[in-house]
Amino acid sequence: MGDCVLSKRKMRLLFISNLFPDQREPWRGLDNVTLLHALKKEQPDLETRVLAFRPSLTLGARQIGLQPRTEDVVLNPSYHSAVYVPKFGGCNHRFFEWSLTRALRHLEGFRPDVILAPWLFPDSCAVAACFAGVPLVSVAQGSDVHQYLTMPMRRHAILRMCKRARAVVTRSRDLENRLAAAGADATRLHTVYNGVHMDVFRPSSRPEARRLLGIPDEERLLLFVGNFLPVKGIELLIDAMAIVASQHQNISLALVGSGPLEQSLRNQAEALGLSNRLRFAGRQPPVEVAQWMQAADVVCLSSHNEGVPNVVLEAVSTGRPLVSTDVGGIAEIVEPAMTRRFLVSGRNPNAYANALNEALVAPPDELVLHQKATQYSWPNCARNYLDLMTSA
Fold it and tell me: Which helix (H) or strand (E) holds 380?
């Protein structure tokens, strides 16, 4: 995309999503709120309002008493319930639309020039129905393409929304290609990768990071960062870890995150005799995640499908090799930055273990990786979004 051409009159942006943080869930939708702050930094006179929704089975849409993080007050968020009925998934954009129309009174006369709405279904589909005359920039997150396009009612709603939106941002080329193959207008699809905080995720002293985390210098440390969910396929990583552990007596695996599969992962590790080699570090804020990456030898992903998760960009910016299953848009980042040797086709633990050994023995230069991550900085990401929004 070219340089951003800004309007003489300040732009009024309305952000609508269920993925926006509050004080109770400060990690919810962090990439979205970070983008909003980056947009305001690039265009200081950008006027923003945020309608943040939380799913509810209650049929009465209402404003709810959540409070924003201190740093997000400047974005002017308000929090509302949105009707979401799991067993009627194909109709949830209609329920969301009903909730959204009742939340609009809290805009108090704010008339947006453009709407930014992450998540194709139900969020963006509802927005397209409620704001027929306002340009919409929708954002595909990942599973809304991978999973929802296989569901007839959701697929129909998503493709209908794509015709109404001025632009649909995909966070990987793979997601863009999938939407186009499903019938979305390719001229409205734009790949914009998420940003990365290069001043946080940067090469740093591994011994110092390990001293702060209490990890011995001689230990070889593998790292996973993410939610403990089935789609992440962490059982493959642990199986491969068992193979590598038979070759490296001083190797361990740290898992930063949380989720419903934690106990089953602990059980798997115990069955493989790895309990003393796994560290469950819990969910961590970005600064601590960066510290874990600085301490690690290899960052690992073993997902069944992905877009381009933030951990990929963060690993590159920190200068750490990333070993991953070759799914979604991950190769779009790993292949030009590192090597295909670190990407694993299929779900064979031996193949994954071989890639781990490659990364341990011959890691790429960390400063070269960090420099390659410059194109994924948040300022570059924000400028790409501003180009799309001003064009809309």
Answer: helix 378-391
68 cis-preceded (ω within 30 degrees of 0): no
The three-state secondary structure class of 321 is coil
Q: Tell me the per-residue pLDDT of 229-273, one tens digit each, with 9 for 90 and over.
A: 999 999 999 999 999 999 888 999 999 999 999 999 999 999 999
- State pTM to two decimals: 0.88
The pLDDT of residue 117: 98
> In this model, does residue 222 exceed pLDDT 90?
yes
**d(C-alpha 292, C-alpha 256), whole Å:** 8
Q: Distance between CA 187 and CA 381 in Å, rounded?
A: 20
Name the CATH code of domain 12-195+377-391 (choices 3.40.50.2000, 3.20.20.70, 3.40.50.720, 3.40.1280.10). Answer: 3.40.50.2000
Instruction: State the Cα–Cα distance between residues 121 and 129, nearest whole angstrom.
Output: 12
Give whole-number Cα distances, 328 to 166, 260, 324, in Å.
Answer: 25, 23, 11
Band (pLDDT 50/70/90 cuts) for residue 337 is: confident
Range list of β-strands (E), the chain: 12-17, 47-56, 77-83, 114-118, 136-140, 167-170, 189-191, 220-225, 251-256, 278-282, 298-301, 322-325, 343-344
| CA proximity to 246, closest of 170, 324, 141, 353 | 353
User: How far is residue 383 from each of residues 1, 36, 160, 375, measured CA to CA in Å?
Assistant: 9, 11, 28, 12
Token pair belonging to 100: 């959204």
Q: Which structure tokens are listed for 248? A: 């490296």
Domain positions in the chain are 12-195+377-391, 206-375
Whether 12-195+377-391 shares its CATH topology with 206-375 is answered yes
Question: What Rg value do the Cα atoms of the chain yield, rounded?
Answer: 21
Does residue 220 contact residue 321 with C-beta atoms inside 8 Å? no
Q: Six-digit token pair at 255? A: 């898992």
In angstroms, the CA 308 to CA 167 distance is 19
| CATH number of the domain located at residue range(s) 206-375 in this protein | 3.40.50.2000
Q: Residue 60's beta-bridge partner residues?
A: none
Residue-level pLDDT at 84 = 85
Strand partners, 225: 256
